[in-house]
């Protein structure tokens, strides 16, 4: 059964409402280059793959990492190029005798089926290091196991991470169809290892929009998501195990990248050209979903945890996956920073920016400039943060949020799946107006006292109302160009 979340109502020049709500298909009045397509189950829309039999390997190597076995086993690669091996007989094992570069006891660690969101066995300098998670070699690997190996950085890093690279070897129960070339790699996290075929990709749900200036190449997007996105640790210290060759350490850069990738996949390239980038992007969503089932969360925290919800939403929609969809649609508030940073205030009649905080935490930061610099306004009048329109709102969250909101507008079913209208409303407000600080009856540094001095305006930050319109960091010229080209013709969905 097709997984589609709610009906869509509303007009959009570049979009059509799909599925049981009407529109789309051959009867649509939208130009062919701007249609999103039908929600009916598609024919196989992936490039044809020739049948492929398995080779045998005594060792496999990828990204500077080599897995060596006691003898040659059936082996191959998944659609994204990651390796698999299979035992000689059903119920057998693959004996791994060496993995290089070697684990030192504190560096170059590896795990089998990582299952913890607060501990890791990759590098002792990283938060939550637990050497008991690193198996001894030789290791008898069974079908349904993912061996995740890291290479540590030698020198102290300039950023957060202590890892240079990582790769995944998947041990299967048996040789897969077509040698695995038509399959996504199973998620590296946890014990469940579904084999998802490329034929499940609903590529017809992607818009086919005319190109805009500054678009990154599809090769750039494919390269960015080619390696495993090792992203399964809670809190901001999860960046400690983001290998520099695999993904950025800082969440704001992850958010810029994931938004740019989603938008780039909406342009009118051939499916053949898109597939390497699309495979890598969807693989990230498959991996995130498994880690979410294991307790992974991305609660609001400065600029650290943003950018992942859109990847899961994209994967749920294009893979027609109800399980991944539920992780997005049914998630409690502040499971994802994209939700936790925003809330609708009936007092201000606006979606305001700021993370959940206590009143004491808010005023401690206001009066000392210490503590959390992303606290929401406890009175629901103005944007939060140490300075409305500044700090984390300006530097590290809002522009990636704007680009993500455009993805939701251009694939309207994602708005229903997202299950929170705050993002699209906030993006429009920021682009068209900027920071929100009025009306506000409270005095600056007054711990909630009313402002009785009108000489500089009433409120904590009256002069900042409407400042920094459509400004901020961690934004690409490509996303800005897409907004200019396609936001005017897109409308919000009404989901029910």
TrEMBL record:
Residues 40-50 have a biased composition (Pro residues). It comes from the Bacteria. The keyword Methyltransferase does not apply. Residues 25-55, 442-462 are annotated as: Disordered. Keywords: Signal. PROSITE patterns: PROKAR_LIPOPROTEIN. Residues 1-22 form the signal peptide. This is Lipoprotein. It comes from Ralstonia pickettii (Burkholderia pickettii).
